[in-house]
Write a structure and sequence with these properties.
Structural class: alpha+beta
Oligomer: single chain
Largest sheet: 8 strands, mixed
Strand order of the largest sheet: 1-12-11-10-9-8-7-6
Number of helices: 9
Number of strands: 12
Length: 373
Amino acid sequence: MKHKVLLIALLLFPCHIFAHDSIPEKSSKKEYSFIIRDSPASLFTMRQFDENYLSAYRLAINELNNIVSPKASVWIQTAATTLFLIPLTHEEGHRSILTGEKIGSISKPYFNKRMAAYVTGVTDAQLIELRDSKLPNYIRLYTSGLESDYALLLRENSLLNWKEETKEILRVEYINRKVSYISYYAMGLVDNIYAKRGVSTMSIFNLKEETNELDRDIVGHDVYGAIRHLHRPDMEFYRYTDYLDLTSEEQQFAQRVGWRSLLNFVDPLLFGKTGFTISNKYRFNLSLGYGMCPFGDYIDEHFWLSTGSFKSHLYFRQFQNKNNWFPAFGINIPNISISDSFLTSVSLHGWQQPQELSFTQNKGELGGGQVFG
């Protein structure tokens, strides 16, 4: 993957809608951003779909809360997020990688008879070509659904910690998505217990590759498929990876992923805490995070700070491939007032990554990026 300096002022055309929430806040004015055009200019990039989804969701729940009781709203939100909306954004994350590679696909973000949501319409030959020519992008094809989930969680975290949205609007979405996210990564901890008894979880759900390759999900199990291809990218190709298909070394990596995913529970927002006050002037919050990337995985430490009109989100990240660690950091400062009629946002990022995004390489190379918008 190439890392580019993005100038959002040139590449994006965000639309802003302001609305008034019925729930009292210090300021009742809210901002809902929609990305009309992203880079590359294809529908839809992961960032574009996530941002547009979140703004549309907030607007919809705001109206829902005005017409139904709080209890009914919670039930409706729970059903909508778990049965359709979380699978929708998750599968769109997968689909966006294929679109970026100019590979057509069909997103089916609803649970089929096997209780699975798919992205279909891609041949084995196309996937093999992507694997053999761009292995990091192929690994990202597996992890991109969870990458999309994680990006949405961080965006919602910022909105809540900065008091730009209320818990009544985002609490259900946030908790359901967080639990779904952790559960997927932690599945190896449960499957390891079944594996010791010789039981395959794929057989329990009857997950077999469909006869017609165009009807198959592009990746199968996101986590196990990524782990298998990180360790054995040249092995015989097939899509649906069971825990029992993993070697003992790969199963140990799945255990590493499962245990580390529990770090995502270190989050005051899960317990309704949107920040801590210092001297009645400064507010801050923090959380830990974890996820997989095209060359391994990473651990995050996030910090949110707000004082008056100044808000910031700072993070430190520790990437790891098979055995080696690589540091990263970043900061986001939104809505910097340049004048009465001009606002801008700035994000700065720096990182070290293994050469060629290799799972085994111990030598790193530096990278950085900046975003203005």
